[in-house]
Write a structure and sequence with these properties.
Blueprint: E1 3-16, E2 19-32, E3 36-40, H1 47-53, E4 64-66, E5 71-74, E6 77-78, H2 84-93, E7 95-98, H3 102-105, H4 112-124, H5 128-141, H6 147-151, H7 160-172, E8 178-182, H8 190-207, E9 210-215, H9 218-221, E10 227-232, E11 235-241, H10 242-247, H11 252-259, H12 300-304, E12 310-311, E13 317-318, H13 334-337
Parallel strand pairs: 3-9, 3-10, 7-8, 8-9
Antiparallel strand pairs: 1-2, 1-4, 1-5, 5-6, 10-11, 11-13, 12-13
Helix pairs in contact: 4-5, 4-7, 5-7, 7-8
Bound molecules: iron/sulfur cluster.
Iron/sulfur cluster binds near residues 295 and 299.
GO molecular function, one term: ATP binding
Family: Belongs to the ABC transporter superfamily.
Subcellular location: Cell membrane
């Protein structure tokens, strides 16, 4: 497999009045051509900051800082060293992003067709007429009915699901190498959610785009992702293939996330597992395991020393003291063994 993206020691902080919030604290991962990587975790775990850093889209003027030692290599070139003009070309042409709420991302004053055509004119040098024809093709590709007519309509004339499809059409118009989808289905109802995920999967197969899927919901990624990385308090606590994370999870936080996914075999189907407590304050992150305060298996060492990543297989790693040979043997919760 050919690596298209290689993120090394990514550290991102926000300078606030209360102090420096260390939102992402030394994250490493890679993305192969054409695969789907899911980044999963609760709100505030650093997954969105990580994905926005890849396009250098961190908010300004709020002082966000990507530390100098961090590297984001796209086809071997460090995005963090690129000039503004190179970054502008990269966004849209090489890496595109779709967001949770298409209504705030689409331009309400422009027809959807023009919004798709715009990036084709800028990045591919097409004429207005050619770009509009391509825009109609893209709308057909994302299954918008009456694409010619719909291309001339404004976002408010689209339903929620159609707006998200239009966002996908804009993001994929220039056939980017990487698509970042940040909670792409959260604002949609369940049936439309499934349709949008299927659409992303099909388009990925047709266009060969690699996808980074950012979500708080492990249930959403089971059918779509090739690999999963679980983040907590700004660090990756477990990563592996989808099978490894679903069928051989090793970290208590991954167990908690998996238990909160609805299962048919759960006895009491009205009650879903909820993890108690809240993530740590990232102005003063804990010195030991960041999950210690919420972990029912916490040992003394967990509070004092951050666990290193233990290699379970070539593709599976976990940061938890339970993997230490001297740690007591702990079984995966029973509900996950069924
Ligand atoms: Fe729990 Fe300790 Fe593992 Fe952290 S290192 S998840 S506190 S057992």
């Amino acid at each position: 497999m050919e690596k298209i993206l290689d993120v090394q020691d990514l550290k991102v902080s926000f300078h606030t009045y209360a102090g420096e919030v260390q939102a992402v604290r030394g994250v490493n991962f890679y993305l192969n051509k054409g695969e789907t990587l899911a980044i999963v975790g609760e709100s505030g775990c650093g997954k969105t900051v990580t994905s926005k850093s890849l396009m250098r889209l961190l908010p300004e003027p709020m002082p966000a800082e990507i530390k100098k030692t961090s590297k984001i290599l796209f086809n071997g070139k460090n995005i963090l060293d690129m000039k503004e003009s190179e970054i502008r070309h990269l966004r849209g042409a090489d890496i595109s992003m779709i967001f949770q709420d298409p209504m705030t991302s689409l331009n309400p004053t422009m027809t959807v067709g023009k919004q798709i055509a715009e990036s084709l004119i800028i990045h591919k040098g097409l004429s207005k007429g050619e770009a509009f024809e391509e825009a109609v093709k893209m709308l057909k590709l994302v299954n918008i009915p009456n694409a010619e007519k719909r291309a001339k309509q404004y976002p408010h004339e689209y339903s929620g699901g159609m707006r998200q499809r239009a966002m996908i059409a804009i993001a994929l118009a220039c056939e980017p190498k990487i698509l970042i989808a940040d909670e792409p289905t959260t604002a949609l109802d369940v049936t439309i959610q499934a349709q949008i995920m299927d659409l992303i999967k099909d388009l990925q197969k047709d266009l060969g785009t690699a996808v980074i899927l950012v979500t708080h919901d492990l249930g959403v990624v089971a059918d779509v992702a090739d690999r999963i990385q679980v983040m907590y308090a700004g660090v990756v606590i477990e990563h592996g293939t989808t099978d490894e994370v679903f069928y051989n999870p090793k970290h208590p936080y991954t167990w908690a996330l998996l238990q909160s996914v609805p299962r048919l075999e759960t006895e009491n189907k009205d009650v879903l597992y909820a993890l108690g407590g809240t993530p740590p304050d990232l102005i003063k992150p804990p010195v030991g395991c960041p999950f210690a305060a919420r972990c029912e298996y916490c040992m003394e060492i967990c509070k004092e020393v951050m666990p290193d990543a233990t290699r379970i297989s070539d593709t599976h790693g976990v940061s938890c003291w339970l993997q230490d040979p001297l740690a007591p043997k702990v079984e995966v919760p029973e509900v996950l063994r069924k």
